Amino acid sequence: MATVSRREFLKLTALGAGAIGVSELGFDLAQAYEVRQQLRIAGATESHSICPYCAVGCSLIAFTRKNPDGSVRLLQIEGDPDSPVNEGRLCPKGATAMELANSVRRVEHPLYRSPGATEWQTVSWDFVLDKIAQNIKASRDRTFVTTDGKGDTVNRCQGIAFAGGATFSNEEGYFASKVLRGLGLVYLEQQARV
Amino acid sequence: MTNHWRDIKNADLILINGANPAEAHPVGFQWFMRAKLDPKRGPGNGGGAKIIHADPRFSRTSAVADLYLRIRTGTDVAYFGGLINHVLLNNLYHADYVKNYTNASFIVDKGYDFKDGLFSGYDAAKRSYQTASWAYELDASGFAKRDNSLQNPRSAFQLLKKHYSRYTPEMVSSITGIPKEDFLKVADLVGEMGRPDKVMTIVYAVGLTHHTTGSQLIRSGAVLQLLLGNIGRPGGGMNAERGHANIQGNTDNALSWDILPGYLKIPRPGQATIDDYVAKSASKKLDPNAWNFFGTNYRKFMVSLLKAWYGNAATANNDFAFNYIPKPAEDSSWLTIYDNALQGKMEGLVLSGMTAASIGPDSNQVLAALSRLKWLVVMDPFPTTSSEFWHAAGLAPETIQTEVFMLPATHWIEKDGAFTNSGRWVQWKDAVMPPQGESRHDHWIMADIFQRVKTLYEQHGGKFPDPLMHLSMDYHNPLRPELDELAREMNGKDLKTGKQMATFGTLQDDGTTTAGNWIYSGMYSDKGNFSKRRDGIQDIAKNDPTGMGFFPNWAWSWPLNRRVLYNRASADLDGKPWDPMRPGIKWNGQKWVGDVPDYPPKLSPTDPKAWLPFIMTGEGVGRLFSNSLLDGPIPEHYEPMESPVENPLHSSVSASPVAFLYDKAAGRPDRFGTPDEFPIIATTYRLTEHEHYITQQVRLLVELQPEPFVEIPEGLAQEKGVKNGDLVRVRSKRGKMEVRAIVTKRLGPLQVAGKKVWQVGIPIHWGYVGIAAEMHPERSQHWLANALTPFVGDANSRTPEFKAFLVNIEKL
User: Fold this and answer.
1) Counting C-beta atoms within 10 Å of the first and last residue's C-beta, which end of chain B has fewer, N or C?
2) Domain A44-106, what architecture?
3) pLDDT tens digits along B69-82
4) How confident is the model at residue A41 (pLDDT cuts 50, 70, 90)?
5) CA distance B765 to chain A (A)
C-alpha cells in the first residue's frame, strides 16, 4: 500500500468520518501510527508556531487540549505541511520541541542569591522586581553621564549592560530596545555577534 | 540573507563557506539538495546544481557536495580572492553588470595605496586607519568621477585587479592548504557563473563571521558575487544562515549597541542636533542617478522612530527629543562589556536567554568579569551557566559579592509575536500554552521593572529622568503590553489620519508620522497583520504565481514583502531579466512585475532619469571598493591572531593590524598563545542535535549527543598516542577542556606556507549546567569550549575570533 501523507490521511479520515477499518488500512505500521496520532489529537485545538531553535524558520503545528480544571495540555508538535520553508519537515531539535515546551526542569519561582551566599533563596516577584529596580536606579545614578569631557551632551548610563534576545519575538525585542535606550543604556548586545 | 531559503533551489552553483548547513540548518538544506537533485531539471525548477563545500572539517554537507575542499580556518579571503583574480584575469566577469551595476568605473582618491600589508592612512600608534584616502575623487558637484572604459588605473576595477593579482593559485594554496588542482577545479566552475544565464549563490554562517577578519571575509564573497553579476538575482546573493530563531528580527530591532531599530546608526557624541546626526549618519548621493533612498529618507525614519518612542514629548521645538537617545563613547559590544566589568566599571548586567559564561570567548575571563559585577539579572526559563556562575570550577561562592537574580521567564510557545528567519520572512506564531508556573514574559518583566524605576525617580528624583518620564507607554496595560500592540507600533501610523502606515515611503520628518521600526512598516497596515498570512504550498499554482518560490501571501518579509533584495539588478538596463527562465522582476512596458520591485514600481528603465539599481547606496551601484569598513577598502588576507604560520603575503603584517587588543589596552597580561607551545589549530562548531546551551535541558537531545568531545585527525592522534574514546586535555593560553577524543578521517593535515599543520574541531554545547552535567558533576567542570577561545574580535564588528585559535592536546 502506498504511504499516505499525514495531510492526505487527515483528509481521508475526515471524509470517512473516522470509520477507517483494518481492511482499508491493512497492517502497515506507518498507518497504524497515524491512527494512534489521530486519536491522540482528535478534537484538539490546532495552533501555529515557529521552531525556537535555528533561523530556518520552520513552521510548527501545536495541538493542545483544555483539561477539565482549565489547564492546557500540549499533546503534540509537528511540522506544518503548508510552509514553503519546511514543507512539514523538522530536524531532531524541532521534532523534540515538545520536550522543551513541557519541562519539569524549568525554574519555578524567582530566585535570589545575596552577595557571598552559597545557596539560592526562593523569593517573590515583588521582592526581586523591587530590588532590581533599586539596583538599576542606583547604578544609573552613579554612572550616568549627561555631558562628556568635551562638553557634548551624551545622556548615557555607563554602568549597566544588557545582553540577549535571540529568541524574543520581534515585538519583545523592539520593546526591550525602547525601554533600555529609555533608561539610557549604551551597552546592548545579543547573539548576532557571539 | 539577500535571498531566502527556498530560493537556493534556483541556483546553478552553491558555494558554502564557514557553514555546515546539512547539520546546522538541516531543514533549510533541503533547498540545496533540491537544487542538486530535483527531477524537474531546469532553471527555476532546481536540479543539476553543483555544491562546493570549503570547510576545515568533512561533514554531512561535504558528503553530498560535488567538491569538498579542506581549507585552513580563517583563510577564506584568500580563497575568494583567488577566485576574484581568476575571474578578472580571464575576463569571466559579467561585463554589463560590472560596468553599470557596480562601482568598477568610480575613480579613487590619489592618496590610496596598498603596500606590504598596509593600506594608506595607517596609524601604528593607534592601530587604526585614517580612511580619507579610500574615498572617491569627486567632481565640482560632489559626485564621484567615473571612467566607463574601466581603464583608469585608479578606477575601482583596476585597483581590484592589481590587488588580487597577488592571489595566484599557488598563493591561494599556500595560504589555505587547498591543493592547487582542486582550487583550479573550483575556479573553472565559478568562472562559468558570470554568464547571464547562470547564477551562483554563496552561503555562509558564523564560520566566516567569527574571525578578526570576519567582515572582510564576507565582503570578499560579496565582491566575487558582484563581479559575476549574481547579486539581486533569484538563485544568487550573499546568504547568511543565522543560528537562533530570531537573531535576524532582533538585529532588525537593534538589540545591538551601534544601531537603533531599522539599522539607523546610534547617535555619537558631538552630534548635538538631529540635523548633525543625519549629516554624519546618512549616506551621501555620489552619482546624479543614484536615488540614495536610505540617505535621502534618513531624517524621516529617525523622526518617526522618536515620535513612536517619545510621543507628544517629541516636538519640532525640542528636536523631537533627539537628546533623549544615549550616545556611546566607544564600541559598546560584547567584548567591551566584559572588559569594562573586569576593570570594575560595569555595575550591573541583565542577561535574557543568553548565557555569558558559555557563549562569550575566554570563559575564565568572563567568569572573573561576572564576579566583579555588583548585580546580575538572568531572565530565562531554565538555569544557565550564568545564573549558576558562582558554582563554576575554581570560584568560591562565599568570596563572590555579585548579587544574582534568577527570573523565571516564559518561552516561545507561551507567547505570540513574530520570528524573522534568515531570509527576512516575518512569521507570526500563536501563544499556544499559558505561562508555566510563576514564569512571566520577558517584556512584561521589563515593563514592570521600568515602571518601578520610574516610580523611584518620581519619588526621589535622580540623574536626568526626562527620557524615563516621557517614554511612551501608550498600551492598554502599560505593565503588560500586548505583542500585537507592539507590532502595530513598530509598523507606525499617520498621526493626522490615525491610519496605520501601509509603507515607509510616506513617512514624514515633521512629526506627523510614527514608525518604531521603519523596515517593518507595511507589515501591519489597516489591512491587518500580514505576518499571519498562510497561503503556502497547499496550492502552489495559486500561491506562487511566478513559480520562483516567492509565495507573496505566506507571512511577510521586510522590506515591503520583497523576497530578493536589490532585485532591480536581476534585470538588464532595459528591464529584461538577465535570465528569462529565472526572473526576479521585469519591466512589462507599464510597470515592474514579479517580486516586489526594489525600485519605484512604475519608473521606466529607459527614462533618462531612471535610478541606478542599488537604491540604498549613495553610489547607486554595488561596491567592489568601499570605504565603509575600518580595516581596508578591499578585502585582504590576514592571519588569525593565533596562527602557526606567518602570512605568506606579507610576513611583516601577519595578522590584522587594526583588531583591538583588549588585554593590552587594559594593561592585563597577554593571553595569546604562540605556535611553539600551542602548535595545533582549533575551531569550534555546532552539532545537529543541540542548539547552543538550552538543549542541555532536553533529555531526548542529550541522549542523542550526551557528552562533549574533540575531533582529532588520525595522524595527529597517532603522534599524541591518543585513541578513539580516550580522555584528553585540550589547552590554550587561556584555559583547558577535558573531554573525550574522537579520532577521525574528517580532519587531516594541511600543507600551509610549506609547513604541515593540523586542525582539530570542538563542539560548543556543554558546560556545568544541564542534564549531562548533572550526570557527570566532576568532569563537567571542564566542558566549556569557550574556555579556550581568545578575547579578541573583528576590527569592525568586534565579533570574537571563536573559529581560529591555537591549542595543544595531551592524553589524560
Assistant:
1) C
2) Single Sheet (2.20)
3) 999 999 999 999 99
4) confident
5) 14
* Beta-carbon-side half-sphere exposure of residue B484 (alpha carbons within 13 Å): 7
Render pLDDT for B381-409 as a digit per residue (tens, 0 to 9).
999 999 999 999 999 999 999 999 999 99
pLDDT range class, residue A4, cuts 50, 70, 90: very low
CB atoms within 10 A of CB A83: 28
| Reported confidence tier of residue A18, pLDDT bands at 50, 70, 90 | very low
Cis omega (within 30 of 0) on the bond before B708? no
- Among B30, B467, B700, beta carbon nearest to A89: B30
pLDDT band at B46 (very low <50, low <70, confident <90, very high): low
Report pLDDT for A2.
41
User: Considering only the top CATH level, what class is B5-243?
Assistant: alpha beta
Per-residue burial over A39-68, b = 16 or more CB atoms within 10 Å of its CB, e = otherwise:
eebeebeebbbbbbbbbbbbbbbbbbeeee
Q: How far is CA A9 from CA A4, A5, A31, A192, B489, in A?
A: 6, 6, 9, 41, 42
Domain B334-421+434-460 annotated CATH 3.40.50.740 = yes
**What is the arithmetic mean of pLDDT over B351-379?**
97
| B402 vs B520: CA distance, rounded Å | 39
Question: Is residue A24's pLDDT more than 70?
Answer: no
Q: To 10 degrees, the CA torsion angle through B10, B11, B12, B16?
A: -150
b/e per residue B376-409 (b: at least 16 CB within 10 A): bbbbbbbbbbbbbbbebeebebeebebbbbbbbb
Q: CA dist B52 to B14, B187, B684, Å?
A: 6, 11, 21
Distance of CA B112 to the CA centre of its chain: 28
DSSP labels, B155-202: BHHHHHHHHHTT--HHHHHHHH---HHHHHHHHHHHHGGGSTT--EEE
pLDDT single digits (tens) B678-697: 999 999 999 999 999 999 99
- Contact by Cβ (8 Å): B519, B259: no
* DSSP conformation class of B360: S
Q: Band the pLDDT of A21: cuts 50, 70, 90.
A: very low
Number of helices and strands in chain A (H, E): 7, 8
pLDDT of residue A27: 62
Mean pLDDT of chain B: 97
Cell numbers that stand for B647 in this block: 602570512
Question: What pLDDT is recorded for position A13?
Answer: 44
Which of B404, B520, B799 minimises the CB distance to A113? B404
**H helix or E strand, kind and range, residue B308:** helix B293-310
- The b-or-e profile of B633-656 (16+ CB within 10 A means b, else e) is bbbbbbbbbbbbbbbbbbeebbbb
Architecture of domain B651-811: Beta Barrel (2.40)
CA Rg, chain A, in Å?
25
From chain A, pick out residues whose CB is under 8 angstroms from the CB of B397.
Answer: 116-118
Work out the angle between the directed axes of helices B442-460 and A125-143 (0-180°, nearest 10): 60
C-alpha to C-alpha distance for B777 and B673, rounded to whole angstroms: 30
Distance between CA atoms of residues A159 and A185, nearest Å: 8
State whether residue B660 is helix, strand or coil: coil
Percent of chain B with pLDDT over 70: 99
Question: Domain map of chain A by residue range?
Answer: 1-42, 44-106, 111-189
Q: Which of B249, B270, B456 sits opposite A152 (nearest CB)?
A: B270
B336 touches chain A (CB under 8 A): yes
Residue A38 pLDDT level (bands cut at 50, 70, 90): confident
Binning pLDDT at 50, 70 and 90, where does residue A8 land? low
| Sign of the C-alpha dihedral computed for residues B151, B155, B156 and B161 taken in this order | positive
**Residue in A with minimal Cα distance to B412:** A52
Query: Phi/psi at B225 (nearest 5 deg)?
Result: -65, -35
* Sheet containing B417-420, strands listed edge to edge, beginning at the edge strand earlier in sequence: B417-420, B425-429, B556-557
